[in-house]
Amino acid sequence: MLKNTLSSEEENRGSVEFQVFWFTNKIQRLTSHLELHKKDYLSQRGLRKILGKRQRLLAYLAKKNTLRYKELIGRLNIREIKTR
């Protein structure tokens, strides 16, 4: 689904962009699973944990390199993180 949004040079599995991409993919799969299985509380917990990890990575990227952050959320169609 989102696989075409990252080029082969960006497929460095340790990069923040790849990790956010991977978490976004998992979030979409879990969300579609939870639409069918509304009472799957363990999957809901896993989804919340993944959302938190992705949020922390995005906050890190926003602080370190705002240009890469803006580009990434634009490509993956993610809302901007809320700042405190």
From TrEMBL:
Keyword Ribosomal protein (UniProt): yes
Lineage: superkingdom: Eukaryota
A GO MF label: structural constituent of ribosome
Pfam family membership, one: Ribosomal_S15
Cross-referenced CDD domains: Ribosomal_S15p_S13e
GO CC annotation: chloroplast; ribonucleoprotein complex; ribosome
Locations listed in the record: Plastid, Chloroplast
Alphabetized UniProt keyword annotations: Chloroplast, Plastid, Ribonucleoprotein, Ribosomal protein
GO term, biological process aspect, one: translation
Keyword Chloroplast (UniProt): yes
InterPro entries xrefs: Ribosomal_uS15, Ribosomal_uS15_bac-type, uS15_NS1_RNA-bd_sf
Family affiliation: Belongs to the universal ribosomal protein uS15 family.
Subunit structure: Part of the 30S ribosomal subunit.
Name of the featured protein: Small ribosomal subunit protein uS15c
Organism: Oldenlandia corymbosa (Diamond flower)
